[in-house]
Amino acid sequence: MQSKKTALITGASGGIGYELSKLFADNGYNLVLVARDRKKLREVHTEINVKYGVEVKTIVKDLSEPLAPDEIFQELWEEKINISVLVNNAGYATFGPFTETDLDEELKMMHVNMIALAHLTKLFLPSMLDSEDGKILNVASTAAFQPGPFMAVYYATKAFVLSFTEAIANELKHSGVTVTALCPGPTKSGFQKRAHMENSKLIEGKIMDAELVAKLGYKGMMKGKTVVITGVRNKILTETIRITPRRVATNIVRRLQEKRK
User: Could you tell me which of 172, 76, 91 has the C-alpha nearest to residue 124?
Assistant: First the structure.
């Protein structure tokens, strides 16, 4: 698997991760795809292998498990697979008042969205620095820019991803390695269903599809951008938030995320 560069993509069985997998394959990358769902991962493996003719390795792991990043790294090290691009895409949300949401589920979410992301970055970054070549794409969200009532923990995890990405991107200037935070707004995928937020006002109307989000993220990462916000509407929103009092921004998000009556 070393004749070409290899990209490792987490959460690759659907949504943005699936679309990114196809983009990397179409551009000649071999792939290591990580997800929890064995059946879906097998289907993605077959599709990409047949359509693009690149080598695809799949690893079935639940990144809410503390040992998962080490196990992924160890497996690839034993097989002498060097990772040139790391895409930390895996993530999910819970929806509802904080006093009513499930604690165990939120702790798992925090582990996937933040700890596993930082852990994998810590493991795979040194070899990129040794070769003075590599890219890391961390999937954050426009949620990273303000507090989010009814998704309090999720918004906080994405704020972590954005802050973490910007900080290490600065540290790695002139190293040959770039780090990018992809910040999409609401996106058509299985995200809303898993979060049980199909009735939220936030996803009313036209929202961006995962294919376009992936293309914009891929393009921005290849250009070495630190932050990629998808879509003009989302860019205007995040810029407006910067000059809006936090209390006002929080109240606006609350109204957007209340369930439709």
Answer: 76
Identify which of 14, 18, 229, 40 has the alpha carbon closest to the alpha carbon of residue 143. Answer: 229
Active site residues: 154
3-class state of residue 208 by DSSP: strand
3-class SS at 187?
strand
Inter-CA distances, 106 with 48, 96, 133, 159, 176, Å: 33, 11, 35, 16, 36
Tokens 């770039």, located at residue = 178
Half-sphere exposure of 251 (CA within 13 A, CB side): 5
The whole-angstrom separation of Cα 83 and Cα 127 is 8
Report how far residue 110's alpha carbon sits from residue 156's, in angstroms, rounded to the nearest whole number.
Answer: 9
* The pLDDT of residue 84: 98
Q: 33-79 pLDDT, tens per residue?
A: 999 999 999 999 999 999 999 999 999 999 999 999 999 999 999 99
Q: Look up residue 221 and give its amino acid.
A: M
Cα four-point dihedral sign 157, 163, 167, 168: positive
The answer to whether the CB of 127 falls within 8 A of the CB of 83 is yes
Between CA 69 and CA 104 the distance in angstroms is 20
Supply φ then ψ for residue 34, to 5 degrees: -120, 135
82/127 Cα distance (integer angstroms): 8
How far apart, in whole angstroms, are the C-alpha atoms of residue 217 and residue 219?
A: 5
**pLDDT tens column, 67-104:** 999 999 999 999 999 999 999 999 999 999 999 999 99
Of the candidate ranges 38-47, 123-132, 231-240, the one whose mean pLDDT is the lowest? 231-240
Q: Within a 10 A sphere around the Cβ of 195, how many other Cβ atoms?
A: 17
* Residues 178-196, mean pLDDT to the nearest whole number: 75
